[in-house]
Amino acid sequence: MEVVDQSVIPQQKSGFFARLKALPCKVKHNIIMVGKNIKKLGKDDPRRVIHSLKVGLALTLVSLFYYLKPLYDGFGMSGIWAVLTVVVVFEFSVGATLGKGINRACATLTAGALGVGALHLSSLFPKEEQPIILGSLVFVLAAATTFTRFFPKIKARYDYGLIIFILTFSMISISGYRVDKLLQMAHQRLSTILIGGATCIIVSICVCPVWAGQDLHNLTASNIDKLANYLEGFGDTYFQTAPEDKDCVNDIKNDKSFLQGYKSVLNSKANEESLANFARWEPGHGRFLFRHPWKQYLKIAALARQCAYLIEALNSQCSSDIQAPPDFTSLIQESCIKMSSETGKTLKSLATSIKAMKHPNSATEHVENSKTAAKDLKSALEAAAIEDLDLLAIISAATVASTLVEIVECVEKISDSVHELSQMAHFKKVEATVSPEKAPQMLLHRGTVKPVLLDGDTDDDHVVITVHDDIASDSPDKQNVKTPKTRVAPAVL
């Protein structure tokens, strides 16, 4: 017979009462944490809160089929299909809502017509053979439609419509065998589905619309900007060089979180393809006209991911314990820093041009500078006697240099793709301006340039030029020049 230790019973009771006493504090803590998570979720993207309110508004509108007696008398219990349509069709972005709404409407119309046709065809046969005819038609269409869903392009855009097609055709053809007044029932359900879909589309477009195309546009620019941030800071971080601002460099070395931003680019493919698919359903809006080249964004995104993979390989060398000899490091340092900096400036310029939808003219110069640095690196390596160095010691630094050369080529492809996008999407052209470095040394302003008199000179020995604004080139008042008698003394503005 088992003996129970009596000393354990008070401990169990005390533990139970302790947990019971701590229960209110635990519940309070959980409620506070849930509130913080809700606040953070809404603060990260306020559009989520607006979307929730939009769904509630759409459901309230279609529920009038039950609340208003005239509508209920006209549609009856079929009004529930409008509610179901809003629940399954209303998506976060306008493109996703339009895609689902159009897919559902077209699939319902097509499947409804075929279902009625199948019932009419079966009515031509004896009563005993009608189930066989209907069953055969359901089998053939369901199997063919399901197989069609495996095509990648069809699955990407019309998968939801194919599912609704199978469901609607099966419901009409099967239930029509036993249900009277099939046409009236089909008309009511089809009408409520179309009304529910139209309600979703109108609310989605008219009330604080969220455009998938705009999100794809911003995501592409943001990803390129993340790559630029890494490349701009890599050279100084890897070679431990410091610019003039010591405080800024210390902050960068202490906080290298900006070097990890590129990792989000590696996992953005699914999101980009989804946004591009939804964007193709959207009508022209804002700066994005009808038939905007959304596929070009996917091309740029693929190249950006390729660059991100190269940066991942580059980043892995930063943690290597193998230190290259100082002679070899000094040989490649200048070219590597320049390649890293110029490619970063190129991507930064491309990201800015995409955001502003302007031609990326300034990126071309940085691309050429990075290519020049790559050529200089190759020339320096060919001229140096690297066979005397330890290959195991220089392999890490050599890998960095080789990867940077590949990044230069990849960034050039990204630049070409962005230039193609700017032409296809008709980005604004930026007028060429004269940079301060290339500006002329002497600028003439409105007024008279007075010469500085040297010893023994008079006013008649100099050229006096008067510049006027808005005067025609052939006007005699544009320049008032006196012919010098002997020589011209230098004038100081």
Task: Considering the chains and any ligands shown, give keywords for the structure.
493 residues; mainly alpha; Methane Monooxygenase Hydroxylase, Chain G, domain 1; 2 domains; two-stranded antiparallel sheet; 17 helices; 2 strands; 1% strand; elongated
Structural summary, described in words:
With 493 residues, the chain is mainly α. It contains 17 helices and 2 strands. The chain has 2 domains: 21-206, no CATH class; 212-238 and 257-425, Methane Monooxygenase Hydroxylase, Chain G, domain 1, CATH 1.20.58.
State the gist of this model:
The protein has 493 residues and is mostly helical.
Main sheet characteristics: 2 strands, antiparallel
Neighbour order of strands in the largest sheet = 1-2
Number of domains: 2
Q: Alpha-carbon distance between the termini?
A: 115 Å
Q: Which stretches are poorly predicted, pLDDT < 50 over at least 5 residues? A: 242-255, 433-450, 462-493
Helix proportion: 55-70%
Instruction: Indicate the CATH topology of the largest domain.
Output: Methane Monooxygenase Hydroxylase, Chain G, domain 1
